[in-house]
Amino acid sequence: MLSLFQLLASLLTVTAVFAWLNHRIFRLPANIGLLVMGLGASLLLIAIELLFPQTHLYGALTQGLRQIDFYEAVMHGMLAFLLFAGALHVDLGRLRRRAPVVGVLATVGVGISTLIIAGGLWAGAAALGIDIAFAWALVFGALIAPTDPVAVLSTLKAVDVPEALETDMTGEALFNDGIAVVLFTITLEAATGPSEDFGLSHILRLLVVEAGGGAVLGLATGFLAFRALRAIDDYSIEVMISLALVTGTYALADMLQMSGPISVVVAGVLIGNHGAADAMSAQTRRYVFGFWTLVDDTLNAVLFLLIGLEVLVLGFDPDLAWIGLVAIPLALLARFASVGLPVAVLAHWKSFARGTVPVLTWGGVRGGISVALALSLPASPDRPVILVAAYAVVLFTIVVQGLSLDRVVRRTALPDDATAPGPDQPDPPASGKA
Fold first, then answer.
1. Could you read off the pLDDT of 335-369 as tens digits, one per residue?
2. Domain assignment of residue 13, yes or no
3. Fewer CB within 10 Å of terminal CB in the chain, N or C?
């Protein structure tokens, strides 16, 4: 068994080698290239194991990967740092102007998508002769409905999206995962046998305490960090303060049973705007933002590689392959409805860039959070079905949608790019069109 240091060293070495090969040879977008190479390496090792059963390479690598608790690594490790790094770059003024849109997409949109996906998976599985309880179909809907902030922000780095549309995509991705984790908790409690106190009041308490409490906690810790940053001018200490802010806020949120993702996003937006403008010198800004950009790029690379390599340890049942093919179009349909319906309603009050619905639909990339939540499910007859469906949707959205999003943007959104409001301009009068 590998030690923790040996495991980290191996993972970082493979990530660096694959990143170099992708940069020099394959030239895919960095993180998608790592995922594809990790997946390719996994499939190659599986093929070698089937052709040459006497080899022990597959078993050794699988044993090493099984030492990594993917759920813990993502949800209680990487996610806090990745969300904070992404939130640092969010323009608060633009986010405030698009707050109604972001809020509805991150809440109502997630609910709509969850219900459509749950109903579709339950009906599709029944048609294929696969048994899955509707309660577990709801669990799958909750874990796959939200767009993944890590995957979306990574994809947006390589795509030129109109400003208002980029704000909608970024804001929704940063906030909807916190809502979705709460919804996942609720549906999982219902699927595993609700307790006597499980009811509307319990659900409302979870939403208010976890989501609302997480936002308040992020504001409080972010404000404390802001005051500490403003009191000194030493970039090394200020970088340490930002690290303490992320780890301390997320850990405290876990202890208080609040939403860690929402808390670090709120803290990150506060520091990235008011902190950068009023509490940091130019030199400190360069170091703080440079540090978090490096953290973001490194952890993103490791996470996407892990998603590809995780095929080695999941042990998919080939008989369930059809459920993955059902889940992909189902997720796209649900995403279209969860975007199209809110946009159609909000268009009476807010303006939208041309191509908003197709770009938000095709840009609804899922990633590590969905895989982590699926892997956290307790053992049950329905778990293998959910794992196959979740992994199929994640791979399709990252590889196919991620690689082709730029084409969708050019064809649907860029002709009217000049009409998108600038960062210091108010939204133009609502046109009623999406």
1. 999 999 999 999 999 999 889 999 999 999 998 89
2. yes
3. N
